[in-house]
Design goal:
Blueprint (H helix, E strand, L loop, with lengths): L5 H5 L2 H5 L9 H7 L1 H13 L11 H17 L1 H11 L2 H6 L2 H19 L3 H26 L1
Length: 146
């Protein structure tokens, strides 16, 4: 296992930070908070070939060999995030606004579609969409921190 798996799952440390004010930590809450980074870590294991695996000739072939499993696992991220948001309270969920619900629906439907299709153009557009979405969310979070 190489270091390439850690940035994807390490990005979920923000999820831990959002629980910083929780006073009543239970073991079940602790395990639940670990689900999101675990999902992203499993995605990274599917996305990148194992170090020293000589059967992988190129990343494109490896991606299409594992795309169904990758997108199926990644699709679980959205419902887990919704439950995570609801656990923080209904007012917190409502405070996220309609863009939260819309982005969750879009991400879930595009990941399910990604698991079904082998269309190369779709997967390229999905990668561009995810990059733009992450940048948009990052600026939205930064704007609220001021």
């Amino acid at each position: 296992m190489g270091l390439e798996h850690f940035p994807l799952s390490g990005g979920c440390l923000v999820g831990f930070y959002s629980w910083r004010f929780e006073q009543n930590w239970t073991f079940s809450l602790f395990v639940f908070v670990l689900i999101s980074p675990t999902i992203l870590y499993l995605c990274s294991l599917l996305l990148f070939p194992r170090e020293g695996d000589m059967s992988v000739r190129d990343y494109k072939t490896h991606f299409y060999a594992n795309h169904r499993a990758f997108f199926t696992v990644f699709a679980f991220f959205v419902p887990v995030d919704v439950v995570d948001t609801l656990l923080k309270g209904i007012p917190h969920f409502v405070a996220q606004g309609p863009q939260y619900v819309a982005s969750g629906i879009i991400l879930f439907s595009t990941t399910v579609t990604g698991a079904i299709t082998r269309n190369e153009t779709y997967h390229k557009l999905f990668a561009i969409y995810c990059l733009c979405h992450i940048v948009w969310i990052s600026f939205a979070i930064f704007h609220t921190l001021r």
